[in-house]
């Protein structure tokens, strides 16, 4: 997020705050400049880029409005492309495909994205204020090999966290409380990618940001993994005969996100080709 504000602050945000501050002083402080409100408005520390109040407000506005709109548009566009390219229209006649399902999937996903963006604001504030181990790519702060190795480490870290979080949400109480909402779509389309309870979606997204608080991560890498993770989430739900589609058919199998490592170690792996071949033949060979 601070990478984004490095461009937005000088480009537009500085002038917006200067304009708002000037308007407030002109409208509220012309007749009583010594009032407590005007003293706050006149305090330059509250308006500078390093102010936690300005940073929090800026991140809240950008995340809530701009980021939610852009992520929603991106989700709908990518979902439409994946649905057109990969979704088998014959599945709409399946008895477990819901009436008006895509409409409900989009509604649930957009609601989840909205809540997710709002809940993520404190994480972005912490990153901007330097609590994360973010650095500029190529700055020499880490060995050269790590500049590229961090992507592998992130995948291993994220997949480990996601596997166990996902399995945790399949505990009966949590499943019925939150995760069941996602699994109502037994025949998922790409539009079900974010059809989660907003709080669950937030918890499941934490590994994306947690890595940068534990180990060094370039700002550019943080942006890349954020975008690619969102794309991958949509692709997982395009309902081809693939790894995650098995999970929607059998909630005890295939919990991983990027890799099958933990599913193999945890005894929850099912090969998609064999699984669906077994289904077509009337048996499940997992």
From TrEMBL:
Tell me which Gene Ontology terms the entry assigns under biological process: lipid biosynthetic process
The protein's UniProt keywords, in alphabetical order, are: Membrane, Transmembrane, Transmembrane helix
Q: Where is the Fatty acid hydroxylase domain?
A: 151-268
**Localization (cell):** Membrane
GO terms, molecular function: iron ion binding; oxidoreductase activity
Keyword NAD, does the record have it?
no
Keyword Transcription regulation tagged: no
Matches recorded under InterPro entries: Fatty_acid_hydroxylase, Sterol_Desaturase_Related
Transmembrane stretches in the record are 59-86, 106-125, 145-165
* One Pfam family, short name: FA_hydroxylase
Which Gene Ontology cellular-component terms appear in the entry?
A: membrane
State what protein this is by name: Fatty acid hydroxylase domain-containing protein
Which source organism does the UniProt entry give? Aspergillus caelatus
Query: What is the organism lineage in this UniProt record?
Result: Eukaryota, Fungi, Dikarya, Ascomycota, Pezizomycotina
């Amino acid at each position: 997020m601070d990478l984004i504000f490095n461009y937005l602050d000088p480009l537009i945000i500085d002038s917006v705050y200067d304009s708002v501050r000037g308007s407030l002083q002109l409208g509220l402080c012309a007749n009583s400049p010594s009032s407590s409100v005007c003293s706050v408005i006149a305090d330059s520390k509250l308006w500078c880029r390093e102010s936690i109040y300005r940073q929090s407000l800026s991140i809240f506005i950008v995340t809530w409005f701009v980021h939610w709109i852009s992520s929603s548009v991106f989700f709908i566009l990518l979902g439409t492309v994946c649905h057109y390219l990969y979704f088998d229209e014959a599945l709409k006649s399946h008895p477990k495909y819901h009436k008006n399902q895509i409409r409900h999937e989009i509604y649930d996903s957009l609601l989840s994205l909205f809540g997710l963006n709002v809940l993520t604001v404190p994480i972005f504030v912490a990153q901007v204020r330097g609590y994360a181990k973010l650095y500029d790519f190529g700055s020499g702060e880490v060995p050269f090999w790590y500049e590229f190795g961090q992507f592998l480490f992130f995948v291993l870290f994220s997949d480990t966290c996601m596997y166990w979080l996902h399995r945790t949400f399949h505990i009966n109480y949590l499943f019925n409380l939150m995760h069941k909402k996602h699994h109502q779509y037994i025949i998922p389309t790409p539009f079900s990618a974010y059809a989660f309870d907003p709080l669950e979606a937030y918890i499941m997204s934490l590994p994306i940001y947690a890595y940068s608080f534990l180990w060094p991560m370039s700002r550019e890498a943080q942006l890349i993994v954020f975008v690619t993770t969102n794309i991958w989430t949509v692709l997982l739900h395009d309902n081809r005969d693939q790894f995650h589609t098995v999970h929607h058919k059998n909630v005890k199998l295939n919990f991983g996100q990027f890799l099958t490592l933990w599913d193999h170690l945890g005894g929850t792996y099912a090969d998609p080709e064999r699984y669906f071949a077994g289904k077509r033949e009337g048996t499940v060979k997992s």
